[in-house]
From TrEMBL:
SRP54-type proteins GTP-binding domain mapped to chain residues: 264-277
Enzyme class, spelled out: hydrolase
Disordered, as annotated region: 376-406
Reaction(s) this enzyme catalyzes, per UniProt: GTP + H2O = GDP + phosphate + H(+)
Gene Ontology cellular component annotations, sorted alphabetically: signal recognition particle, endoplasmic reticulum targeting
Source organism of the structure: Hibiscus trionum (Flower of an hour)
Covered range of the whole protein: 88 to 526 of 571
Record's protein name: signal-recognition-particle GTPase
Length: 439
């Protein structure tokens, strides 16, 4: 999916703004990438429509390029598509909270049972597992072994007892032991069949669970969303757990489940180890899909650090050659704050030609400059000319900040050079003059 989407951004290079016309091609790429990731067609259609609507006529943020802007819009829509917020597990007011797991054979139910117990145990909750897969003796052994591994008790009643009866006995046992949570493993089938559904319905009736979670394999793509829908209609579920996200799944399942079934993905499995279970974070998933974390945080920071008004005010100052030490400090701080994001340079007026190496230099120099600027009087900060004219003032600043007079002189010279460079870059040809510092 990531690779497919990259083509979309590339096509916007060199564009000034997002328009109805220039997003046609990128949107086609996005559509294709989603379909290739096995997202269902109706979901893709709605998604593409939503992104297009937003992209056209979006206010441009200073310094943010259209391709970066589009990445951000796609990201935010992906997050929305996956349900927006993290969908937390619900716990019942009176213990024990009962969690019933369902799903086809081989998707990872039994593994999830133990992983989930391990996960909840780390949150300080006592857990018990109930072995409800009566069709394969090996399934019970598997759960017992995993239970031992994570240190939680497993209730078993062999293969001769009906699952609903095991559920009843297990629940009583959990109440007796004052467990916080009880998780029931059930038998899967290769395909959906009536026997499995009836069995689950019966077990559900007995347990009255707080959570009924359908375990689905991420590798099944859009089929996963269909399964969640079917199980929800048949037995009523509260959410899904997506397993095997560590494999080479194409991501379609994660994208479609919520939109198609209306039920959220609550947890994801990313491996065979007991620790490999985590909450499903739509924003992290979107970030992973796009593989462009740097661009996303850049756009966010750009929005935050350099709001349009700030930039305009700065521009006005530059135009009128009023750029002073206060602005100098503000700008240098902004650059430092943005850290290694060298792309940011393009958005600071007048710093268009600065290289990444210079940014690092700026970060290094920030402390040095701050101490000298702090030693200036407010008047001196606003009128750098005062410092150009007066060696006495420069000497005083050097003493107060613990720097050399030469360093202070350099700073003053730097400010005037910056004024000129900025004016030139703003296209004002008369520029300003760099005063010679008097001795
Ligand atoms: P069940 O039939 O639904 O109970 O499935 P199991 O829990 O027995 O798991 C089937 C296989 O999938 C086992 O070999 C597990 O180790 C493996 N498995 C389960 N979850 C994951 C996961 O998140 N990632 C990977 N790579 N393998 C998993
Ligand atoms: Mg199993």
């Amino acid at each position: 999916l990531t690779g497919g989407l990259e083509a979309a951004w590339t096509k916007l290079k060199g564009e000034e703004v997002l328009t109805k016309e220039n997003i046609v091609e990128p949107m086609r790429d996005i559509r294709r990438a989603l379909l290739e990731a096995d997202v269902s067609l109706p979901v893709v259609r709605r998604f593409v429509q939503a992104v297009s609507d937003q992209a056209v006529g979006v206010g441009l943020i200073r310094g943010v390029k259209p391709d970066q802007q589009l990445v951000k819009i796609v990201h935010d829509e992906l997050v929305k598509l996956m349900g927006g917020e993290v969908s937390e597990l619900v716990f019942s007011k009176s213990a024990p909270t009962v969690i019933l797991l369902a799903g086809l054979q081989g998707v990872g139910k039994t593994t999830v049972c133990a992983k989930l117990a391990n996960y909840l145990k780390k949150q300080g909750k006592s857990c018990m597992l109930i072995a409800g897969d009566v069709y394969r003796p090996a399934a019970i052994d598997q759960l017992v072994i995993l239970g031992e591994q994570v240190g939680v008790p497993v209730y078993t009643a062999g293969t001769e007892v009906k699952p609903s009866e095991i559920a009843k006995q297990g629940l009583e046992e959990a109440k007796k032991k004052k467990m916080d949570v009880v998780i029931m493993d059930t038998a899967g089938r290769l395909q959906i069949d009536k026997g499995m559904m009836d069995e689950l319905k019966e077990v559900k009736k007995v347990l009255n669970p707080t959570e009924v979670l359908l375990v689905v394999d991420a590798m099944t793509g859009q089929e996963a969303a269909a399964l969640v829908t079917t199980f929800n209609v048949e037995i009523g579920i509260t959410g899904a757990i997506l397993t095997k996200l560590d494999g080479d799944s194409r991501g379609g399942a994660a994208l479609s489940v919520k939109e198609v079934s209306g039920k959220p993905i609550k947890l994801v499995g990313r491996g065979e180890r007991m620790e490999d279970l985590e909450p499903f974070y739509p924003d992290r998933m979107a970030g992973r899909i796009l593989g462009m974390g740097d661009v996303l945080s850049f756009v966010e920071k750009a929005q935050e650090v350099m709001r349009q008004e700030d930039a305009e005010e700065l521009q006005k100052k530059i135009m009128s050659a009023k750029f002073d030490f206060n602005d100098f400090l503000k700008q240098t701080r902004a650059v430092a704050r943005m850290g290694s994001m060298t792309r940011v340079i393009g958005m600071i007026p007048g710093m268009g030609k600065v290289t990444p190496a210079q940014v690092r230099e700026a970060e290094k120099n920030l402390k040095l400059m701050e101490s000298m600027i702090e030693a200036m009087t407010p008047e001196e900060r606003e009128k750098p000319e005062l410092l150009a004219e007066s060696p006495q003032r420069r000497k005083r600043i050097a003493q107060d900040s613990g720097k050399t007079e030469q360093q202070v002189s350099q700073l003053v010279a730097q400010l005037f050079q910056m004024r000129v460079r900025m004016k030139n870059l703003m296209g004002i040809m008369e520029g300003g003059s760099i005063p010679t510092l008097s001795n």
